[in-house]
Amino acid sequence: MLTQNLGYPRIGGQRQLKKASEQFWAGKINATDLHEVAQKIREENWQTQLEAGIDLIPCNDFSYYDQTLDTSILLGAVPQRYEAVQAQSDDELDLYFAMARGYQKNGLDITAMEMTKWLDTNYHYIVPEFKADQEFRMSGEKIFNEFKIAKQTLGQKAKPVILGPVSYLLLGKEKEEGFERADLIKNLVPVYIEIFNRLAALGAKWIQLDEPTLALDLTKKEKEAFEYAYRSIAEQVTGVKLLVATYFEALLDNTQLAVNLSVQALHIDLVRAPEQLDEVLALIPDQLILSLGVVDGRNVWKNDYEKSLSLINKAVEKLGADRVILAPSCSLLHSPIDLELETEIDPEIRNWMAFAKQKLHEVKELKQIFEGNNALLEANKAALASRRASQKVHKQVVKDRVSSITDADSTRTSAFPIRQEIQRERFNLPAFPTTTIGSFPQTDDIRQLRAKFKKGDLTIEQYEKSIEAATIESIRWQEEIGLDVLVHGEFERNDMVEYFGEQLDGFLFTKNGWVQSYGSRCVKPPVIYGDISRPKDMTVRWSTFAAAQTDKPMKGMLTGPVTILQWSFVRDDQPRDVTTNQIALAIHDEVLALEKANIGIIQIDEAAIREGLPLRKSKRAHYLAWAVRAFRITASGVQDRTQIHTHMCYSEFNDIIEHIAAMDADVITIETSRSQMELLQAFAHFEYPNEIGPGVYDIHSPRVPTTEEMTSLLKKAAGLLPAQNLWVNPDCGLKTRKWPETKAALENMVAAAQQAREEIGIEA
């Protein structure tokens, strides 16, 4: 029985890649320095997996920014607009980061490629772009160079990983009409064959192809693309075994397709969908090896060895041990790196947890228990029993409040048209009112200030005085450039979820539990270990302070319950909707406290509501019902004159637009700039009734958009939706940006709003 890993975190235990990348972008280190940091991380990762006893260890799972972007480079799928960068620079990193982040220097001004969520995770990938006559060619040496080095360290255990050909196409976008991206499979497969044969010639024994779209709803054409691709590869690739990896959902109606692909092994996710094992075993052909994803690659809790062993035993009984591989459910990219670095967590709770490094050992221990090591099994049982019985987890008063929720607890007093008139009279805003999503740049000074306070080097009075000064400065600047609805900048906040989790009961926090979100952006998700409640006000102090500094409307800023759930490591011992309702009641109490403090506009961010959507359409109705209800619980109870905003980022809304409308937020702000307002079409077709702020510039890129560019986007938006319902704002919060680019972009944005008022000609 072999063991394998599908992928490992690439940021480094101390976020070395983040720091080196940002230094490189700032011109403080050169490409050689960056490559050295990357190679050291790769070598440490390989050594960690080797020491854990893993038999098949991934390489090419490392990326400087995103593995899908790496695949586009490898396949020569570079959009034409980047040819100018290639002509201007011989450094491959200039092209690579231009595609990821945009390019604005040496007389060039090129937008970044679109970015969206990787299936139902908080990881963002760079979306491939395709034309009807798209050509592919093998380009770039990364996968081959990394395999050569990995082989020196790992020998035959080194297993190259690449995004499979069909998922690569399906996760991309057509940039022209008149074709479907699945049509490109015959152009693409020859390049994959060339890559695989070259890897085989270099000595690869296994190649892992990630095909997560096998767990999605597929059309007939998409299923035929899978059959064609793997039949063609099998006919023309020799000397290497192929393993197709699926994850995040059951194969369901794609089971027959998946088990009959012309490959040597298939990986399935038995954490998300343990029930699929029976059908897979019933249909599996002779000789196919089955990789069992039994260790959760996306959460922080210890594996339940008894449950995993029941699945392993069932598979071995049918297939024999030599046709079974043990593995995490998915790449460990989505897990924090090492629990050993966490010395301050409550020891009782820490004993219930496992990070990426520990999950490798869980895979190995499951094999050892299968072979007869009962001591490991008994230790695991004891840890799980401790968690089930702990009074730190269960609070009856919280459970009782959730169980007593009624329909009235999720309903505003009046319908939107009535509220809209009352709110317009109250705030008297101009047409195309301007605002931002909430956060302003978290400069080194702000981060150092917070670090000093946490270490005890500053008193709370000294700390808060400095935060007050930064807040006032940001308010004066917003007034100066003419923004209509202001924000306080969130200088007191470390993260939009962590900040709230620190003030809610039922959460714990790590020191080094970082996970990559996109590029150099890392987040440190809270851990929800018990029942959740709000012991005191969380934001009222800073919102009222900020509001007192200006005569303009000041938004109160909150994070919504589904986003807190999605961007935390969540309890796995109760249904997710129960945990979400506990959070919703806590946020509801905070909303009422802000309203009582005379904060008239309250934004409840639900950036992750689309992200939480089940991958299969058949499972979505239940999720959307409780997710929308949870948001409505947060906003219920406020007066008609209180304006509720929400924000959602980097998502496709076509298939859930009616549920977005059902949230009944007075104003929704969304990302639309990278897609050139394409995402607004769903709102237009639906005739979305409430107000909306389509983002007019991309905050994930350092480039500064021109006034004319943003005015053009506003005109597109006004051609799709009623102009009197449109707001003007960036795509997302500005926490990760620098002040010079932020100020320049927002000044241009305010000018664009003024220009739109004049050219579109609607009255206030």
UniProtKB/TrEMBL annotation:
Residues that hold L-methionine according to the record: I437, G438, S439, E490, D605
Keyword line: Amino-acid biosynthesis, Metal-binding, Methionine biosynthesis, Methyltransferase, Repeat, Transferase, Zinc
Residues reported in the UniProt entry to bind Zn(2+) 1: H647, C649, E671, C732
CDD domains, alphabetized: CIMS_C_terminal_like, CIMS_N_terminal_like
Co-factor remark: Binds 1 zinc ion per subunit. Binds 2 Zn(2+) ions per subunit.
Residues binding 5-methyltetrahydropteroyltri-L-glutamate: K18, K117, N122, R521, C522, W567, E611
Domain Cobalamin-independent methionine synthase MetE C-terminal/archaeal: 432-754
Cobalamin-independent methionine synthase MetE N-terminal domain span: 3-318
A GO BP entry: methylation
Coiled coil: none
Pathway: Amino-acid biosynthesis; L-methionine biosynthesis via de novo pathway; L-methionine from L-homocysteine (MetE route): step 1/1
Known EC number: 2.1.1.14
List of catalytic residues: H700
Catalytic reaction list: 5-methyltetrahydropteroyltri-L-glutamate + L-homocysteine = tetrahydropteroyltri-L-glutamate + L-methionine
Cofactor: Zn(2+)
Stored Gene3D superfamilies: 3.20.20.210
GO molecular function terms noted in the UniProt entry: 5-methyltetrahydropteroyltriglutamate-homocysteine S-methyltransferase activity; zinc ion binding
Source species, domain of life: Bacteria
Residues that bind Zn(2+): H647, C649, E671, C732
Annotated positions binding L-homocysteine: I437, G438, S439, E490, D605
Family of this protein: Belongs to the vitamin-B12 independent methionine synthase family.
Primary role: Catalyzes the transfer of a methyl group from 5-methyltetrahydrofolate to homocysteine resulting in methionine formation.
Protein name: 5-methyltetrahydropteroyltriglutamate--homocysteine methyltransferase
Organism: Dyadobacter luticola
